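Structure representation:
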Amino acid sequence: MPLDQEQIDEKEMSFLDHLEELRWHVIRSLLAIMVFTIVAFSYGKWIFDHIIFAPGRPDFPTFRWLCKLGQLLGSPDALCIDEIPFELQSRFMTGQFTMHITASVVIGLIVSFPYIAWEMWRFVKPGLYKTERKYSRGAVAAVSVLFLSGVLFGYYVMAPMMISFLATYEISEMVTNEFDITSVVGTIVTVVFGTGILFQLPVVIYFLTKMGIITPQFLRKSRKHAVIIILILGAIVTPSADPLSQALISIPLYLLYELSILISSRVVRKREKEEQEEQLNEQAAK
């Protein structure tokens, strides 16, 4: 009699079988990254002009929204940005080519991230019990949504605010801002991708709570330490280390930390409820 899919998933596999299975998941993930990287590289000029360099222009959506907000508040000129004074230069012979490849790879990684998460889930899923699969349902969607939310936040909030602040900051009128392309692109890529990774905090807390490593009580007691860690992470993600960028990333990260406490509390309550039901069933069976 043929085995059904559930039995196939649950049968024991050797260590080499697991390595072989992992190898194919990794290969498919790398192929997805490669495909999107090639596509991004092919449209490099359009991507640089309309996506990567867009946060450095006054007509970027974020600056238009700020201008409209200023008009609603009765101060039309307070939040409007008419000019972002800086020039881009490439001081290295391979600078533009290197940034073209780097940006293409990062875009390929960002676009294929949901598929990579799904491949990793397919690798982990057979090793989980039925109850663990049930409670982990929607994990891929949660990881993908949080990652894309972080990417959008980094791109539409952090990147333009950071560029505007640093490009207009001056210690003397004698100094002209001429930024190297490797610095600008590297900073934008680090901020956007790093924010997407940091937004995975609730998912990490969920699984750590499920494994019994972290409790909501521990998270509540560690708020002060969490704030320090968040500030450190904010400094790592924002290479410019300006106060505005660190504040912009630290505030949503702290809100995600508070959300993680709620998620952890829900996991613990659900586990305690299940344990009580099991005890009642055992007593009834006796």
Observations:
- The first strand starts at residue 87 and ends at 89.
- The CA atoms of residues 22 and 124 lie 9 Å apart.
